[in-house]
Amino acid sequence: MKKTPNEEQRIAFPSGKEAIILELLLGNSSREKYGLELVRDSANRLKRGTIYVTLDRMETKGLVQSRLEHEKTDERSLPRRLYRVTGVGQRAFEAWQMARQAFSLQSAVNL
Amino acid sequence: MSRKARKKKQRVQDRSVFIGYSMNGDPEQLKMVESIKIELTDVMRSAPPGAAAGLPDIETMSHHESVHEADLYVEAPSEATTKISRPPGSLLRSVADFFCSIPTMTNVVDPAIADMQFEIYEALKAHRPQKARWILIRGYWGVAVAIGLVQTLRRVSQILKF
Fold first, then answer.
1. Which residue has the higher pLDDT, A107 or B87?
2. Which among A47, A59, A81 has the least Cβ separation from residue B114?
3. 3-state secondary structure string, B91-139?
């Protein structure tokens, strides 16, 4: 089925876990990070078992980009994968933050 | 003595020193050859397998020389052995390779194993083998969960497509 122009332009809205990953990747240093690094920085909000699956899904959505590290420290070990946020990911995170703020304001008004 | 040790001893006895010489039974020469045999055997047993470069069997070192017209051939098993070990997570990768598709391997399993290996090497560098073992167990569990999650998500998406 062919997608309509609106569907093509739509930015994938990040889930809770995806938003945490985007937040960590867009953090202070704003540099490429390894999956394990993200788990360490998340203070138990992310788990080892789910991080790579979530990152894979985010890559499919176009929220993050990954590449294999150039220099291999040891020939026997596998090269590690580095992740960074794309422009789409950045906009999606901004939209997510705005939505969260709007929702919290709405909740405050209703109370 | 444990079963393993008994087996090793038996193997050593089976492949014990072999000497072939052709002499006329001169007791002096025999005595000398015996002493050389013992000396050579001790040297070769204590030698690291790396010293046997070029030999087909790293567990066995052989030596051949001519002593007073007697051909002396000594073959002794080296007690120093090298354990050839594969990098951590290689078994897990082989198993995952059987079950998972290439994209799953590239995007999920390989990064998980690579990070686990990095963490293990860091722990070993810090002389913490217990921590390395724990990381390995945790890594296996993490990858198993990741594979299970991928398979479950795939099945769910297939069902939703119908």
1. B87
2. A81
3. HHHHHHHHHCCHHHHHHHHHHHHHHHHHHHHHHHHCCCHHHHHHHHHHH
Q: Which of A102, A90, A36 is nearest to A58 (CA)?
A: A90
CB A29 within 8 A of CB B88: no
Helical (H) or strand (E) element with A84: strand A81-85
| Measured torsion, CA atoms of residues B160, A83, B142, A43, in degrees rounded to the nearest 10 | -110
Domain A13-70+78-110 sits in CATH 1.10.10.10: yes
Residue type for position A103? F
Q: Is A97 on the interface with B (CB under 8 A)?
A: no
| Domain definitions of chain A by residue range | 13-70+78-110
Residue pointed to by tokens 């090298």: B82
Q: Evaluate if pTM is beyond 0.90.
A: no
Q: What is the DSSP pairing of strand A33-34 with strand A81-85?
A: antiparallel
What is the percentage of chain A residues whose pLDDT exceeds 90?
Answer: 3
Task: Answer yes or no: do A53 and B108 touch at CB < 8 A.
Answer: yes
Domain boundaries, chain B: 3-77, 90-161
d(CA B9, CA B45) in angstroms, rounded, equals: 13
